[in-house]
Design a protein that fits this description.
- The chain is α+β, with helices and mostly antiparallel strands and 154 residues long.
- About 3% of the residues have low confidence.
- The protein starts with a helix and ends with a strand.
- A three-stranded antiparallel sheet has the order 3-4-5. Strands 1-2 form a two-stranded antiparallel sheet.
- The protein contains four helices and five strands; from the N terminus they run αααβββαββ.
- The protein has a domain of 68 residues.
- It is elongated and about 50 Å long.
- The structure holds zinc ion (ZN).
- The site of zinc ion has 9 residues, from loops.
- Keywords: Membrane, Metal-binding, Zinc.
- It is a peripheral membrane protein.
- One of its GO terms (molecular function) is RNA polymerase II cis-regulatory region sequence-specific DNA binding.
- Belongs to the CDIP1/LITAF family.
């Protein structure tokens, strides 16, 4: 007698709760899960992606500074002054220190003329030709005697 009662009793109570549970779960799950969750994540992603696109725009400002710094270091053309310059001679391709030779330049003649106008006619106007600081400087290679450059006062 127990055999027919067991399946009947077990089948009856099991059926109603299954429907209620399925209804309860089905009613609760579908609305919140697909609607809110994807929307929140998509919104967060969109907000996270947009700001970085705006940041790089104000960055280009330091570029001019970087260019000026590079030009300082990349000075390949040697700048000649009134001092010996250590460089690679373009003629003999050797590392040399330039030999200086002073020549009368524009500043030398201007100094001579101004001294003459001031009345220093008794040979004083030739003093600038003896003052290295008033003369142009020619840079020669001590190895091949090539003229590498000239430093002009004016
Ligand atoms: Zn040389």
């Amino acid at each position: 007698m127990s055999a027919p009662a067991a399946p009947g009793a077990s089948s009856i109570p099991s059926a109603p709760p299954s429907y209620e549970e399925t209804l309860a779960f089905s009613s609760c799950y579908p609305p919140p899960v697909p609607g809110t969750v994807p929307g929140v994540w998509s919104g967060a992603d969109a907000k996270g992606v947009n700001p970085p696109a705006y940041y790089p725009q104000p960055v280009p400002a330091p570029n001019p500074n970087a260019i000026t710094v590079q030009t300082v270091y990349v000075q390949q053309p040697v700048s000649y002054f009134d001092r010996p310059v250590q460089m690679c001679c373009p003629s003999c391709n050797k590392m040399i220190v330039t030999h200086l030779s002073y020549n009368a330049g524009a500043l030398t003649w201007l100094s001579c003329g101004s001294l003459c106008l001031l009345g220093c006619a008794a040979g004083c106007c030739f003093i600038p030709f003896c003052v290295d600081a008033l003369q142009d400087v020619d840079h020669y290679c001590p190895n091949c005697k090539a003229l590498l450059g000239t430093y002009k006062r004016l």
